[in-house]
Amino acid sequence: MNAVEELAHEVAALRGRVGLLERSERVNFEWLLNTLFRYRRFLFVDWRTYDGWTTAVTGTGAVTTNILRNALTTGATNGSTATSYGTAGTFSIGRSELSFLASINTAVTTSDIWAILTTGTAGGATVAHMGFNIIDGRVWASNGDGGAGTQTDTGIDLISVAIHSFMVLSDSSIPDIKFYLDGALVATHTTNLPAYLSHRPLFYITNTAAADREFRVLQMLFRNTTDII
Q1: Does the N-terminal peptide bond of residue 175 adopt cis geometry, omega within 30 degrees of 0?
Q2: Residue 225 binned pLDDT confidence (cut-offs 50, 70, 90)
Q3: What b/e string do you get for 48-57 counting C-beta neighbours within 10 Å, with b at 16 or more?
Q4: Can you tell me whether residue 36 is helix, strand or coil?
Q5: H helices within the chain, ranges in order?
Q6: Does domain 46-225 have CATH number 2.60.120.200?
Q7: Angle of helix 3-18 relative to helix 23-38, nearest 10 degrees?
Q8: CA 7, CA 87: separation in Å to the nearest integer?
Q9: Per 3-state DSSP, what percentage of the chain is helix, strand, and coil (rounded to 5)?
Q10: What are the CA-CA distances from residue 136 to residues 18, 86, 113, 171, 206 (Å)?
Q11: What is the pTM of this model?
Q12: Rounded to an integer, what distance in angstroms lies between the CA atom of residue 135 and that of residue 129?
């Protein structure tokens, strides 16, 4: 029995115990199973293990992990950095989604954060990527093709410690990239789109003053599917 069949069996048993036989719930469950079967690649990280990831730091930067989070901190030395990026494999982003929950657990000022899918091992406005650049707490939607970039100021400022949901969707059939923050569409880009092969998730922070800054990624989902929502 595979994982999806086990899930179906467990939910069916739960239905039998609590009598959840309404048609609407049955339709939702069938949609869930169909969606899972359509996935071609699925990556979920809850930080219990850091296998398949590489970390890099400069100055007083540090990366720490536990079952709840992946925390990137700068320490108090100006210009320090902390980076974590996937190295277990790379992914096509022709039709894909990157979603994650994250927070800035210090003051949001004097910080520069990248949370992206990229072909490289560093952020930057013109590198091949799609995702978010958070500067002093202000969220920018960002993508680049390796030579030029497109960035949109969402007008949204993050609040220290508050947890936010981020999602970026690419669709090569349009083509475009859509950016969502806390469930709301905040930008759509059609220029300087990256090529669709060999991308990896990357999270990065640096400080622009002698003050400790921390970016926490709580959970991350990447899916590459022919039926993106």
Answers
A1: yes
A2: low
A3: eeeeebebeb
A4: helix
A5: 3-18, 23-38
A6: yes
A7: 170
A8: 29
A9: 15, 50, 40
A10: 49, 25, 9, 30, 11
A11: 0.78
A12: 17
Q: Is the pLDDT of residue 227 over 60?
A: no
What is the average per-residue pLDDT within 47-60?
79
**Burial track 67-97 (b if 16+ CB lie within 10 A, e otherwise):** eebbbbbbbeeeebbbbbbbeeeebbbbbbb
HEC profile of 147-192 = CCEEEEEEEEECCCCCCEEEEEEEECCCCEEEEEECCEEEEEECCC
Tokens 């003053």 locate to 209
φ/ψ region of 216 (left if φ > 0, alpha if ψ in -120 to 50, else beta) reads beta
Amino acid at site 58: T
- Residue type (1 letter), 151: Q
**Is the pLDDT reported for residue 59 higher than 70?**
yes
Q: By the 8 A CB rule, do 91 and 100 touch?
A: no
CA-closest candidate to residue 216, choices 159, 173, 163? 163
Q: Which sequence spans correspond to the domains of the chain?
A: 3-40, 46-225
Q: Which two tokens stand for residue 40?
A: 């071609």
Q: Give the residue among 86, 89, 87, 82 at the shortest CA–CA distance from 56.
A: 82
- The pLDDT value recorded for residue 94 is 73
Structure tokens at 145: 């093709």
Any bridge partners for residue 72, and if so which? 63, 215
